[in-house]
Specification:
alpha/beta; eight-stranded parallel beta barrel; binds flavin-adenine dinucleotide
Length: about 300
């Protein structure tokens, strides 16, 4: 056993039972902009279900190559207007000039949006190599610096516990994260992962690289392994063999799949909590129930004020 494995085993033994969690965790939720009216209803019902948990913020993704520019804006602006949750807009610099980015960022500022999740993004054609727009930003670090010149946004950036697929190596990827934070980002949100040890190792390496900003784990509650495998292949996340074993034979049992999915993510969160994590970012895929169940197990309960307002 390596030191890391021993450390991980110790943390697992030390992990408090769900019943003993103090309820002091904070959460944020990520959504994608809906394409149809039906999807809009689903998203909105998810937002309303999760709002009473008083998330620190909710964020809305930006489609590849800026393809959802208007829809992302409309969704973020609606959340900002109609709920008490601070809304964060994802923004990428793929296929956009600096002027276009300025326009988008200024329209967010005018709409009262103060938080941007700043990303380089991926080319719209899957598998293509990123090439910066001739008048654009070449990386997320440059985008962060550009946004800071436009307005004093709060900025989150991406981090990769299992290393971004284009990075020369893990250290180069950490150096890049440090550049983004030094350029003015406030926190990092990680790509999804399934091994708590991968997160802890990354957090230790970040600390050794003098990164002291908050690193928030991105939690993907998985109920569809095939779909997750596709995402994982694109972003360099590992799907552990036990994941397949746990979902084996459940194709015709959707309810059991949901229970298994909640158990896996809740267990991951419990271990992370034991390792000191107090902010969890959920990739909700616009569905509330799994994330809600995991938050409940983490000890979160609807905020009394939010309940009164809803009534
Ligand atoms: P960067 O930080 O610029 O890094 C990209 C790669 O280039 C890395 O390998 C990095 O190590 C390397 N690199 C950068 N600068 C240098 C340099 N100077 N020298 C050497 N190497 C360098 N995508 C979307 O399209 N829309 C979204 O809404 C979206 N939301 C996301 C949210 C989160 C929390 C995460 C984790 C990812 C999200 N993504 C999204 C995916 C993201 O756009 C891709 O992972 C993309 O490939 C990299 O974006 P980045 O911001 O990490 O890029």
């Amino acid at each position: 056993l390596s030191i890391n494995q021993l450390e991980e085993a110790r943390r697992a033994l030390d992990a408090p039972l769900f019943a003993d969690l103090a309820g002091d965790a904070q959460v944020s939720f990520e959504f994608f902009p809906p394409k149809t009216e039906k999807m809009e209803e689903t998203l909105w019902s998810a937002v309303q279900t999760l709002e009473p948990l008083a998330p620190r913020f909710v964020s809305v993704t930006y489609g590849a190559g800026g393809s959802t520019r208007e829809r992302t804006h409309a969704t973020v602006a609606r959340i900002q207007r109609e709920t008490a949750i601070p809304a964060a807009a994802h923004l990428t610099c793929v296929e956009a000039s600096r002027n276009e980015i300025r326009e988008v960022a200024e329209s967010y500022w005018v709409a009262g949006v103060r938080h941007i999740v700043a990303l380089r993004g991926d080319p719209p054609v899957a598998g293509a190599r990123f090439a910066p727009h001739p008048e654009g930003y070449a990386s997320a670090a440059e985008l962060v610096a550009g946004l800071k010149e436009i307005a004093p946004f709060e900025i989150s950036v991406a981090a990769y516990p299992e290393t971004h697929p284009e990075a020369a190596n893990a250290q180069a990827d950490l150096d890049n994260l440090k550049r983004k934070l030094d350029a003015g980002a406030n926190r990092a949100i990680t790509q999804f992962f399934f091994s708590p040890d991968a997160f802890f190792r990354f957090r230790d390496q970040a600390a050794a690289a003098s990164i002291d900003a908050e690193i928030v784990p991105g939690i993907l509650p998985v109920s569809n392994v095939a779909q997750t495998r596709k995402f994982a292949a694109m972003c360099g996340a590992a799907i552990p063999p036990w994941m397949d074993r746990l979902f084996e034979g459940l194709d015709d049992h959707p309810a059991a799949r949901q229970l298994v999915a909640a158990t896996i993510s809740a267990e991951l969160c419990r271990r992370l909590y034991a390792g000191g994590v107090r902010h969890f970012h959920f990739y909700t895929l616009n569905r509330a129930e799994l994330s809600y169940a995991i938050c409940h197990l983490l000890g979160l309960r609807p905020d009394a004020n939010a309940r009164v307002e809803a009534a």
